[in-house]
Amino acid sequence: MIDTLQRLSIDCLFQEEIEALLQKQYMESTISNGYPEFDLYEVSTRFRLLRQEGYNVPADVFNNFKNKEGRFKSELGTDIKGLMALYEASHLSIKGEDKLDQAANYSCLLLDGWMMNLDQRQARLVDSTLRHPYHKNLARFTARSFVSDYKGINGWVDGLQELATMDFKMVQSTNQREILQFSEWWKDMGLANDLKFARNETLKWYMRPMAALTNPRFSQQRVELTKPISLIYIIDDIFYVYGTLEELTLFTEAVDRWDLAAVENLPYYMKSCFNALYDTTNEIAYKIYKAHGWNPIDSLQKTVHNILPANFYIRMSKALLLTNSHVVAVGKFVQCFLSRNKMVCFWAVAKHMRVSETAVVSSGVHVVLVHTFFLLGNGITRKTVDLVNDNPGVITSVATILRLWDDLGNGKGEFNVKHEQKVKEVRSVLRKVGENPLECLVMIDTLQRLSIDYHFQEDIEAFLQKQYMESNISNGYREFDLYEVSTRFRLLRQEGYNVPADVFNHFKNKEGRFKSELSRDIKGLMALYEASHLSIKGEDILDQAADYSCLLLDGWMMNLDQRQARLVDSTLRHPYHKNLARFTARNFISDYKGINGWVDGLQELATMDFKMVQSTNQREILQFSD
């Protein structure tokens, strides 16, 4: 019944009774030097339930089920229920317990062999046990299936099912209220608007505390814990998606100083993040102090202080594989973070500091578990706080597992699915805007500048071929929109189409000069300047276009607002045809955001794509370096 209560995730309602019964079971087993029973199901279930609660139950209890050769007895092979319990128990082994490793292999092999000979319900039970053992699963998410499969096996199961259904509705209502509470906080922080490049996954962030703190009475703790989790993701995106090394140096220094005045030189998006981090940490510390009488601000700050230098080190290490142009930034980082200790050279740090250890810290697990410890408020003393501050094995082990899981790619399935879905969404938009030639040209240009056009190569080629065929049939376009003609000319020439430069004759006067009224068309002049870089030998008209547009754009610079001036300057210094889109996509997003309704969708795809490409590049560098 205790096992059933746990699998239905309603054991929290009977915690005192369960603890008393298990303690009694443990005391009786100690007095009698273990149970002499030969019921595999009973012994395995008792062993698992006691070990789950931290009781030191020896694996020797399974010796009764072995023969003289030390193997499990052959007659156990038909005890399906006992084998399932044995397999469940084997997942609570500790290092060196060969008996339980043997039990896992033995029970798994036999259960797998039985699958084809069982009825549908039994086969489903066995399959569920093998794929989702209780110790490595979340009962809250499997309770429904458990009730469906086990209903009626014991007379009291129907009563527990009714209670579990009622409890589920209450917990569901609580979870929904918590999600709304966190979502309101997230909206008030304004980070979703200030950091468009960063993830905005409120439900995903909340799922972590919901899965870890299942007891309904931990409602406020779940909400508060979701806040630092969300900020970990935001910091991760700042370091690996958007921030420059110089900006990250300033950001790391500001967090290390933990002073609102330190954000003065930060870009706006970093100011927003720092303010959110500062206010949230102090707010949570105050709530913990009110609830438990202990101010944890030093411990919470320490976890935040550690995660930023760890992220910086990883980012810097990867950058140094590619370039040595950021030595000044490294020096600033070393000065700001190591000045409190002995000043050392970055290269010495890189030599003696293991990247794997740094990666473990950068996982954010330390931040989450330290916050959890204080939010729960159990056993807070100077001794336990010192232990937590010293990164005990229980924290570093979890962080290591998470880092390895992520590095092995097991944590990327969801990301890949979202990426594929976003590609489909953008493709749908591209095909829809194809009905409007100008908008489609603009979108293709945007895809190329974001370096994500390779996802839509067939669609782009089909559209450009159609544009070229129509221009041949009509003997060129008779349009007088400089931006549209210039953009079409450039996109077609880039793909190798033989588009004559004569299309620009429409914009010349009788004297063969570009018309004076074009001088006010900033957007058109920028497109003309871009197009002029695809000239071939002898095309004087494009050379003239380059000089004309460059002169006028340069003259406009002093009379434009900051954003327009930045766009013009970028066009003059870095025309697309003589640039590498992968390295300028970030600036393009920043400058062009929101100009068209679909740009935000492309930005999201570009951010996701950047992460995947970055991961691939890093793996290739390491592969070559090895």
From TrEMBL:
Cofactor: Mg(2+)
Molecular function GO terms recorded: magnesium ion binding; terpene synthase activity
Keyword NADP: no
Domain Terpene synthase metal-binding: 187-311, 357-416
InterPro entries: Isoprenoid_synthase_dom_sf, Terpene_synth_N, Terpene_synth_N_sf, Terpene_synthase-like, Terpene_synthase_metal-bd, Terpenoid_cyclase/PrenylTrfase
Keyword Membrane carried by entry: no
One GO-annotated biological process of the protein: terpenoid biosynthetic process
Keyword tags: Lyase, Magnesium, Metal-binding
Terpene synthase N-terminal domain sequence ranges: 1-116, 418-558
Name of the featured protein: Uncharacterized protein
UniProt source species: Rhododendron griersonianum
Top-level taxonomy: Eukaryota, Viridiplantae, Streptophyta, Embryophyta, Tracheophyta
